[in-house]
Design a protein that fits this description.
The protein is an alpha+beta fold. Among the domains are: about 140 residues, Beta Polymerase, domain 2 (2-Layer Sandwich), CATH 3.30.460.10; about 80 residues, Hydrophobic Seed Protein (Orthogonal Bundle), CATH 1.10.110.30; about 50 residues, no CATH class. A 7-stranded mixed sheet has the order 3-4-5-2-1-8-9. Strand 6 and strand 7 form a beta hairpin. Helix 18 crosses helix 21. It is elongated. The structure holds adenosine-5'-triphosphate and magnesium ion. The site of magnesium ion has 4 residues, from strand 2.
Length: about 475
């Protein structure tokens, strides 16, 4: 792989020159570190918007001075307790920190922090590829400082800790997830010693806040091939603590010669499939969770073999429990995932069968605005290894999408509003609210969805009268 270690062009902007001058005027030494350096070397820096700077001395002092020179164009926030400062400038987040030495003790999760040298600061960083620094100082502007051979690891595509991995991961267990996240984002391998250390220390993950865990999970889900991260999480024993709903899907059982598919690996295939067609995070979560109801509903019956009756309903309820446990927001995103899980088997039935107008109308009626997302999920759900079937299902989905457009243009089922209101029915027959009103409304809705009458006032009105009479109701003459 071609690595780019020349920073001249990348650092030739006014901003970097201003940082150099400001730092120099204050008599400080400043370096850019972390993701910017790593991604520049890898040639994936195009969209980098968060930049991390480390200063020997006070990062806050540098940030304040820089802000003054940027006059009105930047927004400064100072986090005194952490010794950091951030400037939002020109769509970027510029993070400033003073070089520090950290020492962890077994008694406390928070490290003791003291001022340190650049080398101390590089020592406290999680991975060799994240510990690379580039000088922003006058005398050696643009020089790469790489004490742990991070460059070699970038070449080898390897995630490795600068210090003993057992200590690194035990000190801050979030690093275990970060290792897996970077391996997924960069398509790197995690060093064998690191993997062993993570497997050994995995129970320490429990001390990390759920929010930070979810942040990393979201980043893993956002990559091109998310299965890589979930397989790694599984391999080191983290997945069964974080998302037991998924590990419970593992395995193939056989009774009387009948087997079912391994729903864990199937799920990961679905997630990889959907990642090719959408970057919608919540749709990706839906793919990840679409089959979780299969573990608790699995049954074997002599007649039909393996069944997972109402796994969609059970799965949707599990989504709520899972979001709550991980302290994810219980808002409309969660409801969206629930809805996707709940409806996840509906279109596939269509795709396997003859696609009738009424089935399509019912699908639009039930899925509402989410019908496109639902189809995206269900197409990703096609993981059959039988090429003939694969082709047939995809063809049918194509047909379903076409039919949806046709039917919707004609019948306007999306966000269905009944053409006859309960009030009209009550007026026509002189009723107060009662079960007959509901029965007539239901009959009209069903007739529209079935295609027995069009979704129009006239037809619905006639049907109302016919139904009313059939129920023995008397019309009020106007
Ligand atoms: P990204 O592209 O995701 O921003 P990044 O490497 O810049 O990647 P950040 O989370 O922005 O990651 O952190 C900046 C730098 O701070 C890292 O490169 C790493 O050197 C250091 N760092 C961040 N979190 C940790 C941690 N938990 N332990 C040790 N070092 C860390
Ligand atoms: Mg960063």
């Amino acid at each position: 792989m071609q690595l780019n270690t020349n920073f001249n062009e990348a650092l030739s902007t006014d901003l970097f020159h201003l940082i150099r001058e400001t730092s120099s005027d204050l008599g400080l030494k400043t370096y850019i570190v972390g993701g910017f350096v790593r991604d520049h070397i890898l040639g994936r820096n195009k969209l980098k918007t968060d930049l991390d700077f480390v200063t020997i001395g006070s990062g806050i002092e540098l940030a304040k001075a820089l802000k003054r020179r940027l006059s009105n164009t930047g927004k400064l926030s100072v986090f005194k307790t952490y010794g950091t400062a951030m400037i939002k400038y020109d769509g970027m987040d510029l993070e400033f920190v003073g070089a520090r030495k950290e020492s962890y003790s077994a008694q406390s999760r928070k490290p003791a922090v003291e001022e340190g040298t650049l080398e101390d600061d590089q020592n406290r960083r999680d991975f060799t590829i994240n510990a690379l620094a580039v000088s922003l100082n006058r005398d050696d502007f643009g020089k790469l400082i790489d004490p742990f051979n991070g460059l070699e690891d970038l070449k080898r595509k390897c995630i490795r800790t600068p210090l003993d991995p057992v200590i690194t991961y035990s000190d801050d267990p979030l690093r275990m997830l970060r290792a897996i996240r970077f391996a997924s984002q960069l398509n790197f391998e995690i060093d064998r010693n690191s993997l062993q250390a993570i497997a050994k220390e995995n129970k320490r993950m429990a001390i990390i806040s759920r929010e930070r865990v979810v942040d990393e999970l979201n980043k893993i889900l956002a990559v091109d091939t998310p299965s890589k991260g979930f397989l790694l999480l599984d391999e080191v024993g983290l997945l069964e603590d974080i998302l037991p709903e998924l590990t419970n899907l593992k395995g193939i059982e056989e009774v009387e010669g009948q087997t079912h598919k391994d729903n864990f690996y199937h799920t990961l295939e679905v997630v990889d499939n959907i990642a090719k067609t959408t970057s919608n995070l919540w749709l990706r979560w839906s793919a990840l969770l679409h089959d979780i109801g299969k573990a608790p509903t699995k049954k074997f019956s002599k007649k039909v073999g393996w069944t997972f009756h109402s796994h969609e309903f059970v799965g949707a309820k599990m989504v709520y429990e899972l979001f709550k446990r991980l302290k994810m927001p219980l808002n409309e995103k969660m409801k969206f995932v629930q809805k996707m899980v709940f409806m996840s088997s509906r279109p596939i039935v269509l795709a396997q069968d003859i696609v009738t107008d009424s089935a399509v109308r019912r699908l639009i009626f039930d899925a509402g605005d989410y019908v496109d997302d639902l189809l995206t999920l269900c197409e990703a759900d096609i993981t059959t290894k039988n090429p003939k079937r694969f082709e047939r299902y995809h063809k049918n989905f194509h047909l379903v999408r076409k039919k949806i457009d046709e039917v919707e243009a004609r019948d306007h089922i999306r966000n269905f509003q009944p053409p006859i209101s309960g009030e009209m029915i009550m007026n026509k027959f002189g009723l107060s609210p009662c079960k007959e009103v509901g029965m007539i409304k239901e009959k009209i809705k069903e007739s529209i969805l079935e295609g027995d009458i069009p979704n129009e006032f006239e037809a619905a009105y006639s049907l109302m009268i016919k139904e009313g009479i059939a129920l023995g109701l008397k019309m009020i003459e106007e």
